[in-house]
């Protein structure tokens, strides 16, 4: 489910929840939404390959955090239906190290409506769904504001929609500046384009 904020208002409040923003302020400082997506693991689907979400950025490992993910289960996440699996401590690994057979893998079992935070450098992946029902969750991924986000929200979410969103969410969707002036539009703050005539 790409284009999440173009299609629904369901996650607006979650994206700017005070607890979430407090964690992001402490870990990333200046940040933006990168890849908000819905994840559906269907009945009988195999486990996802373990991966890191910050591997798309050519940064040597280990590095300071540049991606923080939040997973929001819409269904209960269990061992049987594909709860997110992760390798504890793997966010500290050096370049070139990948999960091996003797590395412990844990499952993030969670109730619907809860949330999990994890760094983009943590090796993780969705588990196998051994049930007859799909498992649905939403990831709100945030990246340091000096990086290019995975989804270009300024193009993906219509300006008419963005104009009606809370200011903080507008900023997280790219209508913001990374100090001192990264991201300006014609020498001005990008939020000014929201008040300009189409």
Rg result: 18 Å
For the record, the CATH architecture stands as Sandwich
CATH class: Mainly Beta
- Our count of helices gives 6
Estimate the mean pLDDT confidence: 94
Gross geometry? globular
Largest sheet: 5 strands, antiparallel
CATH homologous superfamily grouping = q2cbj1_9rhob like domain
Number of individual domains:
1
The number of E-state strands comes to: 8
- The CATH topology assignment is Jelly Rolls
Distance between the first and last residues' Cα: 28 Å
Order of helices and strands: HHHEEEEEEEEHHH
Uncertain regions spanning at least 5 consecutive residues: none
Helical coverage, percent range = 10-25%
Keywords:
5-stranded antiparallel β-sheet; 3-stranded antiparallel β-sheet; Jelly Rolls; alpha+beta; globular; 198 residues
Structure description:
With 198 residues, the protein is of the alpha+beta class. It has a single domain (4-194), classed as Jelly Rolls (Sandwich), CATH 2.60.120.620. 16% of the residues lie in helices and 19% in strands. It has 6 helices and 8 strands; from the N terminus they run αααββββββββααα. Strands 1, 2, 3, 6 and 8 form a 5-stranded antiparallel β-sheet that branches. Strands 5-4-7 form a 3-stranded antiparallel β-sheet, with no helix packed on it. The protein is globular and about 55 Å long. The model has no long low-confidence stretch (mean pLDDT 94).
């Amino acid at each position: 489910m790409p284009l999440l904020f173009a299609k629904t208002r369901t996650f607006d409040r979650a994206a700017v929840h005070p607890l979430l923003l407090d964690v992001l302020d402490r870990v990333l400082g200046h940040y933006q939404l990168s890849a908000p997506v819905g994840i559906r693991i269907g009945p009988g689907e195999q486990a996802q390959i373990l991966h890191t979400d910050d591997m798309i950025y050519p940064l040597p490992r280990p590095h300071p955090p540049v991606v923080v993910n939040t997973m929001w289960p819409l269904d209960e996440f269990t061992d049987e239906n594909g709860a997110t699996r992760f390798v504890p401590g793997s966010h500290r690994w050096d370049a070139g190290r990948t999960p091996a057979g003797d590395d412990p893998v844990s499952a993030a079992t969670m109730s619907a409506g809860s949330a999990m935070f994890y760094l983009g450098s943590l090796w993780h992946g969705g588990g196998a769904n051994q049930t007859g029902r799909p498992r649905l969750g939403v990831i709100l991924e945030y990246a340091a504001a000096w990086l290019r986000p995975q989804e270009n929200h300024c193009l993906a979410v219509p300006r008419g929609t963005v104009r009606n969103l809370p200011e903080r969410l507008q900023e997280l969707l790219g209508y913001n500046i990374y100090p001192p002036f990264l991201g300006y539009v014609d020498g001005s703050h990008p939020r000014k384009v929201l008040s300009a005539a189409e």
